[in-house]
Amino acid sequence: MIKIIVALSVFTLAVYCAPLGWKSAEEAKSEMTAAGISSQAADGIIRIAEDYSTLRPSGGGSDRVAARAAFHKFLSALETYIKTQSPADQAAYQSFIANKGTF
Fold first, then answer.
1. Is residue 27 helix, strand or coil?
2. Which residues of 76-91 are buried (b: 16+ CB within 10 A; e: fewer)?
3. pTM of the full structure
4. Which one, out of 22, 41, 90, 91, has a CA that is 20 to 30 A from the CA of 84?
5. Per-residue confidence of the chain (103 residues) as pLDDT tens digits?
6. Is the dihedral of CA 26, 29, 33, 39 positive or negative?
7. How many structural domains compose the chain?
8. Signal peptide location in the record (predicted)?
9. Nearest Cα to 23, choosing from 32, 10, 14?
10. d(C-alpha 10, C-alpha 7), whole Å
């Protein structure tokens, strides 16, 4: 379960923290909705990623403790959010991150 959450979290953070050429929020949302996640749930996932992307260490420095703390806060917020969604969205989310975990 944790591996799946980590895989989606990495994907979601990559959408917002990646250099140009990576998927935009709209592309990520489109991919999630194509996997069966409702538009509302996808918007919530993206909103959480946007909120936590600001916790990324600035200046390219590598403060591993701060980065790890931010990442764990993100995972916790994402897990809490997914639990509030419909069973169909939860199942689609699990399927989506299982497929993303194979990259």
1. helix
2. ebbeeebeebeeebee
3. 0.68
4. 22
5. 666 776 666 666 665 565 555 578 889 899 999 999 999 999 999 999 888 877 666 655 567 787 788 888 888 998 899 999 999 999 999 998 888 765 4
6. negative
7. 1
8. 1-17
9. 14
10. 5
